[in-house]
């Protein structure tokens, strides 16, 4: 099994661990079955999500966005003097994590840093990624799997905030000038079951990112709200709320006609961002004569790439400072044993 800690800080590779997505119609159902395996999600909901992909020819943007991220990160690492080969493995679709770790073993990689493509702590956004890495390592011949240590979550890193701030300000600039003073900002993130949210710092970290952004953007407290999107569980299970569409309805009824949606819980404009915000939210705004602008995710923003390089540098050289701003210190490098446990659904009564 892969180790969570490499005391020598002597890494010989970087592993990008991503979610994965289909790249054609024939991929959609097998991909969704991979994602939902072991989860109590009704098949009707799976087919509904499959239709979202069908609207875009069965192609998720996420794999191309990972390629774009690699194309931006590799030269930045080289410029910083970091000579690590970079591998990319997905949890749910090709290139599969297991295949990539096998390739790393074949290439003689002994210890690697892993960039999990998630900025916040939760079971589905951190621990599950780590578990998938360990499972993939366990499938490699005994003694040949690399040790894999994850980079810390970075919700309060100053460069993550500045990249999001740039995206937010660009979106605000798209709102008519006479409406900008009172524009409403809806920060969105993927909803989680309350049973999962209560066992991690997901909400707290998102609130801090939103607060830092609002502060730096000069927003009033009554101008912004953290809301959620993309819930997929059983209707009877409580999830984080409010949903973005419910929030837009509330704003509309309150007379607000200018809204910026900033998907700070996501790092790239993948399918959930595109469908939930660019289709459903825009349709609602158009129907109710609301001016809606959607901020881009950080994607390959230069500050985001520079932050990733910095996170790698601080692990290669422990004498370097670990930067964070706001209320909370830099997050831990090594996750505690009980960090972000899997949610346990209450027994039926």
What's the mean pLDDT score? 93
CATH names the topology of the largest domain as Rossmann fold
When the domains are counted, the total is 2
Shape: globular
SSE run:
EHHHEHEHEHEHHEHEHEH
Give the total of beta strands. 8
| Alpha carbon gyration radius | 20 Å
Describe the structure.
- Helix 9 (244-253) runs parallel beside helix 10.
- The chain has helices at 25-36, 43-54, 62-79, 97-106, 123-138, 158-172, 194-197, 202-217, 244-253, 271-287, 302-316, and strands spanning 14-18, 86-90, 111-116, 147-150, 184-190, 224-229, 258-262, 291-294.
- It has 349 residues and is of the alpha/beta class.
- Helix 10 (271-287) links the parallel strand 7 (258-262) and strand 8 (291-294).
- The chain has two domains: 14-154 and 303-316, Rossmann fold (3-Layer(aba) Sandwich); 158-294, Rossmann fold (3-Layer(aba) Sandwich), CATH 3.40.50.
- It is globular and about 65 Å long.
- The strands form two sheets. It has a four-stranded parallel beta sheet, with helices on both faces.
- The protein has eleven helices and eight strands.
- The longest helix has 18 residues, at 62-79.
Task: Give the topology, please.
Blueprint: E1 14-18, H1 25-36, H2 43-54, H3 62-79, E2 86-90, H4 97-106, E3 111-116, H5 123-138, E4 147-150, H6 158-172, E5 184-190, H7 194-197, H8 202-217, E6 224-229, H9 244-253, E7 258-262, H10 271-287, E8 291-294, H11 302-316
Helix pairs in contact: 1-2, 3-11, 4-5, 6-8, 6-11, 9-10
Which characteristics define this entry?
four-stranded parallel β-sheet; disordered N terminus; 349 residues; 42% helix; Rossmann fold; single chain; 11 helices; alpha/beta; 2 domains
């Amino acid at each position: 099994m892969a180790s969570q800690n490499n005391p020598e800080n002597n890494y010989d590779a970087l592993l990008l661990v991503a979610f994965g997505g289909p790249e054609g119609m024939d991929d959609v159902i097998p991909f969704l079955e991979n994602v939902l395996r072991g989860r109590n999600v009704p098949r009707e909901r799976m087919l509904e999500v499959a239709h979202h992909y069908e609207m875009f020819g069965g192609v998720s943007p996420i794999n191309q966005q990972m390629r774009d991220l690699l194309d931006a990160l590799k030269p930045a690492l080289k410029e910083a003097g970091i000579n690590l080969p970079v591998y990319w493995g997905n949890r749910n679709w090709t290139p599969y994590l297991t295949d990539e770790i096998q390739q790393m073993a074949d290439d003689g990689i002994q210890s690697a840093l892993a960039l999990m493509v998630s900025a916040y702590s939760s079971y589905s956004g951190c621990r599950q990624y780590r578990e998938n890495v360990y499972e993939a390592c366990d499938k490699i011949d005994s003694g040949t799997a690399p040790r894999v240590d994850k980079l810390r979550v970075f919700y309060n890193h100053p460069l993550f905030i500045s990249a999001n701030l740039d995206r937010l300000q660009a979106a605000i600039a798209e709102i008519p000038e006479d409406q900008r003073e009172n524009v409403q900002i809806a920060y969105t993130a993927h909803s989680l079951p309350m049973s999962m949210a209560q066992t991690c710092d997901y909400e707290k970290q998102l609130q801090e990112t939103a607060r830092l952004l609002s502060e730096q953007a000069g927003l009033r407290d009554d101008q912004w709200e953290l809301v959620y999107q993309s819930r997929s569980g059983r209707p009877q299970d409580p999830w984080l709320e409010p949903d973005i569409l419910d929030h837009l309805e509330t704003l509309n009824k309150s007379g607000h006609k200018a809204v910026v949606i900033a998907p700070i819980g996501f790092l790239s404009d993948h399918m959930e961002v595109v469908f939930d915000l660019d289709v459903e939210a825009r349709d609602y705004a158009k129907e109710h004569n609301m001016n809606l602008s959607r901020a881009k995710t950080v994607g390959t923003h230069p500050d985001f790439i520079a932050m990733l390089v910095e996170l790698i540098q601080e692990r290669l050289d422990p004498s370097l400072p670990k930067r964070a701003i706001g209320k909370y210190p830099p997050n831990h490098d090594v996750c505690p044993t009980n960090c972000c446990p899997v949610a346990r659904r209450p027994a039926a009564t």
